[in-house]
Amino acid sequence: MNPLACTKCAGRLLMALAAIFSILLIAGCGSSSSAPTPNSGGFSDSNLSGTYVISMSGTDLDSNGVPVPFAIVGTITANGKGAITGTIDINDPGNTGVNLGQTLGSNSSYNITQDGRGTGTLTTTSAGSFGIDFVLTSNSHGLITRFDPVGTGSGTIDLQTAVTSLTGSYAFSLSGADSGGNPLGTVGAFTLSSNSITGTEDFNDDLTSGDGYTDLTLSGQVVLGASGTSGTAQFNTNAVNGKLASLGFDVWVIDSTHLKFIETDGTLNVLSGDAFTQVTSFAPGQEVFTLAGVDGTGGPIVAGGYATITDANGDLSNGVEDYNDAGNAVLQKPFSTSSSTCAAGRCQSALNGFTNGSGNQLTFVVYPSSGGGLALEIDSFGLLQGAAYSQTATSFTGSGGYALNLSGLNNLNPVTATGVGEVDNIAQFNASAPDTSFSGPINMTGTLDENDIGAPQPTSKLSGIYVPDTNADGRGSISSNNSKTLLTGFTLQYYVVDSSTVVFIDVDSTALDGGAAQVALGTFEAQSSSSGAAHRAISMVRPTVRPHGAATFQRK
């Protein structure tokens, strides 16, 4: 255990006992003079100017205080001076249902500090208001969380480019929950011609996969909206589950390579996610990945690591997996493929040594795309979903500012100090040169905001150390103290995608943290306040709270 992790453990018991008072303290502490001073990054309200596609998914509380899934996708227009207009779709079957085309009222607003962090409110015509907390990487992209006392979730903000028509092939990854609130994931690909689509689709519905759910023929249509407004999509398959056989969506175009989807058909499923231009095969080289979902008994799990692609079918060698299965963290587990085949952009792989906490051989389907290899577990041993990314650098720039988003679950309810709740973090930090051990100097300093479902926490100072692996594979470790967060910090394993994009998993475990644990993943991305430079678009699947699933988290 490194020194920073020890410091975290000492404070977590007190934090759990004090959590019941957190809601009462938010207003006072948030305005306290002890709040951290933002890093100077040159950002202001003017950096958010134009029309952006905004998306968030996560958990809120129903009228009985039970966690239920929600998703929001739409467009906002920011005037560069703190005002917002726009239209969003909301899928929240446990509360207000499906609310389409919600106009944002005149009191919707935002404020951005010099480090790129922003806060705001989205006030709708009939579905209430949503607090937002975000951090910009540039004028064209940012990471966002919902930040209010009744819900939390994570997503992205992306500047919209005018597109009048789409053609070609797209791969997609959609995740969320089925009508019973259980985890649901789907991946696939379609070719678009004159609004009609043909392709394939795979589902995993709460560990239900196999025949009747995988390698299904996909048909339907995708119709664009006018002038950047939402379009529609219809996905039809022969899935044995009737609630999956015909799915309707609203579609928002970011640019010709990237679309956002939200389910709108009233089946009580909550699916949302991305589609990217399709790539039909893999390029040999090293890739990094993150995955999230549930293990074979319903416990939350995240996994991350790297592997070498040896051929166009996506066969893997020299794989290293880190995972956190319901608070049981295991690092550097070797794995490889036993078989892999690709046809029409759909690749299926059986893996040796890769695990979700069980000893079973796992099978994944992967659709290569410009947003990564979109992956879904399609056996009956669990539901992992995520993406793999071709690695173009093994270190991130050791200077400058970074935007960070973390999303997952922890096993401390912020009000009762028991059970499972969703947690989402937005942070900004400045990095200096890497350390070689956790006894070295602090090399990450910044500010973090955390929302534990039902209890947004006061702004916290982020102070941490990152240490790359000695063999320069792009993998490394982070330990950070964040005193006003529920677990008083985090311990991460990170994987460099390119010099400005990093993905990670949270390995805070019951063994490390005195009974507390956090199963989460996320990304951090380099900032530039002086440009609207393009960022690397990636698919990021986030963990879903399972209904009445607290016991499965604490079984280890």
Strand order of the largest sheet: 4-3-2-1-9-8-7-6-5
**Kindly state the mean pLDDT as a whole number?**
88
What is the overall silhouette? globular
Total DSSP E strands: 34
Number of domains: 4
Explain the overall architecture.
By secondary structure, the chain is mostly beta strands. The protein folds into 4 domains: 177 residues, no CATH class; 115 residues, Lipocalin; 110 residues, Porin (Beta Barrel), CATH 2.40.160; 106 residues, Beta Barrel (Lipocalin). The protein has 4 helices and 34 strands. The protein has a 9-stranded antiparallel beta sheet with strand order 4-3-2-1-9-8-7-6-5, with no helix packed on it. It is globular.
Throw out a few tags for this protein.
8-stranded antiparallel barrel, 556 residues, mainly beta, 9-stranded antiparallel beta sheet, Lipocalin, Porin, disordered N terminus
Helix/strand layout:
Layout: H1 3-18, H2 22-30, E1 49-61, E2 67-79, E3 84-92, E4 97-103, E5 109-112, E6 117-123, E7 129-138, E8 141-148, E9 151-159, E10 168-177, E11 183-193, E12 196-205, E13 216-223, E14 231-236, H3 242-245, E15 246-255, E16 258-263, E17 270-277, E18 285-294, E19 300-309, E20 316-325, E21 328-343, E22 346-352, E23 362-367, E24 373-377, E25 383-390, E26 400-410, E27 421-431, E28 444-452, E29 455-456, E30 460-468, E31 475-481, E32 489-498, E33 501-508, E34 518-526, H4 550-553
Antiparallel strand pairs: 1-2, 1-9, 2-3, 3-4, 5-6, 6-7, 7-8, 8-9, 10-11, 10-17, 11-12, 12-13, 13-14, 14-15, 15-16, 16-17, 18-19, 18-25, 19-20, 20-21, 21-22, 22-23, 23-24, 24-25, 26-27, 26-34, 27-28, 28-29, 28-30, 30-31, 31-32, 32-33, 33-34
